[in-house]
Amino acid sequence: MSVLQRFEKRLEGLVEGAFAKVFKGVVHPVEILNAMQREAEAHKAILVGGRTLVPNRYVIDLSPYDHSRLAPYAAALAQELAQSQAEFIGEQAWTVYGDVIVEIERGDGLDTGMFRVSAEVYTADQAPQASYEPPPQQYPPYGGQQAGPPPGGGGARNVRLVSGDGRTFPLAIGSTTIGRGDQANLRLPDVGISRRHARLDFDGAQVVLTDLGSTNGTMVNGQRVSAVALNPGDMIQIGTTTLTFRVDG
User: Going along the chain, which residue ranges are E strands?
Assistant: First the structure.
């Protein structure tokens, strides 16, 4: 039985036999799951060792009508979507950081039957609405105890960003948000940078850069990116600021 078939079977139990009635005339959850799978495919990043990293957080914007119709089932539906997406990612032998998270929100301006799916690599610095914890052998959790030492050494590498004017910004294990707002860990006074522009996730061995839906985008080596694993010497451009990714050891 495929992931989609298992998902439909669980949905039938979720609404206790009222499956066809509940979802008649509104966006169908299977369409949402299909879109989430396409988002994962579109945002793949290759990690050291050949592993493929895909987003683990998916935000679903529904039209106001669809959102109101599905509201009684939203939490349970988000849970089922998260579990099915985790199963799909496992079947592809892809990797995620931590849990697969799904959030269902009201998307003002969307017509009935229309929806949006956005995806990102996400680390748990806030409580999700719904999540599904995948098997640890397929989805190594971000941070915490590792099964073995990081590639290339016995401990965490020293990594940093170096600006064009020579300033150095060391990166600690965990998440570092870049932006010009008060909530950013690394604040840069550049009007071309969003308040929360991008995030760097460092697990001791690998750094993944994720654009946080910034207005002007994030560039790595001249290419616009949504999420990418960084290599030593990569040039990151946000706004008019250029940062070089450096690794010691």
Answer: 45-46, 52-53, 57-62, 100-106, 115-120, 131-132, 158-163, 168-171, 174-179, 186-187, 198-202, 207-211, 218-220, 223-225, 227-229, 235-238, 241-248
